[in-house]
Amino acid sequence: MRQHLYFIAGCIAIALGTVGAFLPLLPTVPFMILAAFCFARSSPRLEAKLLDHKHFGPHIRRWRARGAISRKGKTAALGAFAFSVVLALIFSPWPWFLIPVAAAMIGGGWIWTRPEA
Q1: Burial of 10 (0-12, 13-18, 19+ CB in 10 A)
Q2: Cα Rg of the chain, angstroms
Q3: What residues contact 81, with CB distance under 8 A and at least 6 apart?
Q4: What sections of the protein cross the membrane (predicted)?
Q5: Region 106-113: what's the mean pLDDT?
Q6: Where are the chain's structural domains?
């Protein structure tokens, strides 16, 4: 049963990552890393396909080996956080805009402290 749940979660992560490839605010690589994690526990064949993928494979392997995020990835993530904060400041009333600001600061700080590739 657990193996099936990991497989379903991996498929959902692939779907979200695919959508993220076309939507600028939805990340792609973190969903592919999550999919690889799920497939490692449910489908070694699909995990191997992700690890051998031309674009996502190197990111997944770096994350597994060292928890590393490339400088380009960090910059893109922080840019998306900044854009989200600006949208929150424009469209959210006080004090609700503080939630995305706090999330961006916490998430951005964590991302920036990860080792680089």
Answers
A1: buried
A2: 16
A3: 104, 107, 108
A4: 6-39, 97-113
A5: 91
A6: 2-66, 71-113
- pLDDT, tens digit, 9 for 90 and up, residues 83-92: 888 988 899 8
Number of helices and strands in the chain (H, E): 6, 0
Burial (0-12, 13-18, 19+ Cβ within 10 Å), 106: exposed
Do 39 and 7 form a contact (C-beta atoms < 8 A)? yes
For tokens 């392997």, the residue is 61
Q: pTM here?
A: 0.79
Tokens encoding 19: 């959508």
Two tokens, residue 64:
């597994």
